[in-house]
Amino acid sequence: MARRPKYTLMPSIVAVLETLTDAEIWVHEKRVYHKGSAELREAIGEAIDRVRPTGVRGTALLFGAVLLVAMGQGTFTPADIAKLDTLGQGNADYILGRLDELEGEANG
């Protein structure tokens, strides 16, 4: 019986990270690494705290944080989401929709 390939968010995380920095980015043992600035690391850490209430975990949490940082800096737009693979598109739509919902409740 053939094994089904495992789909991950790693390609989408790398694609969004590439819009944020010219620094080297690589994947090793199911982890994404980059030689970006300390400010970028701090911004991603703060974005993780913002994404956490959506309920996503693991790589989806990192993906959401990287996506928010890139969109906040203007290097990645909602139109760019269509360039991601289907897993990345679905997660981006869910995370952004859930954030809008949660922030709407907090403001309303």
Descriptive overview:
The protein is mainly alpha-helical and about 110 residues long. About 55% of the residues lie in helices and about 5% in strands. The protein is built from four helices and two strands. Strand 1 and strand 2 (about 30-35) form a beta hairpin. The longest helix has 22 residues, at about 85-105.
User: Pairing-aware structural class of the strands and helices?
Assistant: mainly alpha
Order of helices and strands: HEEHHH
Radius of gyration: 14 Å
Within the largest sheet, what's the order of strands? Answer: 1-2
Distance between the termini: 53 Å
The averaged pLDDT comes out at 91
Helix percent reads 55-70%
Largest sheet: 2 strands, antiparallel
Q: In what range is the share of β-strand residues?
A: 5-15%
Overall outline: globular
Q: What's the total number of strands?
A: 2
Helical run tally: 4
Low-confidence runs: none
Present the secondary structure layout:
Elements: H1 10-20, E1 25-28, E2 31-34, H2 38-51, H3 59-73, H4 86-107
Antiparallel strand pairs: 1-2
Helix pairs in contact: 1-3, 2-3, 3-4
Structure summary:
This protein is mainly α. The chain has helices spanning 10-20, 38-51, 59-73, 86-107; strands spanning 25-28, 31-34. It is 57% helix and 7% strand.
Question: Which features characterize this protein?
Answer:
single chain; 108 residues; mainly alpha; two-stranded antiparallel sheet; 57% helix
